[in-house]
Amino acid sequence: MTLTTQFYTLVAMIGMGSYFGATLDTYQLFLKRSQRKRWIVFIHDILFWIVQALQVFYVLLLVNQGELRFYSFLALVCGFAAYQALFQNSYLTLLKTFIRICKATADFIKEVVTLLVYKPVTFILKTLMLISLTLMKGLLALLYFIIKVIMGTVKIICSPFVWCFRQIYKLFPVSVTNKVEKLYNYIEGILKKAWNNIYRFINKGKNRE
Question: Structure pTM?
Fold first, then answer.
């Protein structure tokens, strides 16, 4: 290994030591150990150290084809110590400021999206639903009125026929009239139940309005 290569290796390892210090502080800041379970912290720690080792090896591979010497470890320690002494406070201040800016930006975007997209869309959907329900209730009320008019008209028209039918009906035997009355009462009960349900639904719609 030439002196130039050794010098590049030394400088690269010092830089990696400082980089390791910065990444360690960043990792500690985002990990929040006290708020996470131990096994999650353990897995994260293992992955972190593996990534750091791979990065150091990759830099060595670029600089001196992956040769690891004793002074490489000393250079890493020196770089880490230099970061701790000279750059740590400034880096953490910048990092926390950057995080606050990102959070403020995300909150601002969230408020803008809520104000300009979510609330208008929600208002439009609610308005459309209200209009649809109002139209449906109006149609049901109109249908109720039409049915009532038709039934009244049919009742007036059929009243002479009903009177004649009753007179003829009295001539039938009692056994036949009893069966007919049971069938009539059964059908009448079904029709009244259906009619009452429609009437209650329309009245509920009117009360809500």
Answer: 0.56
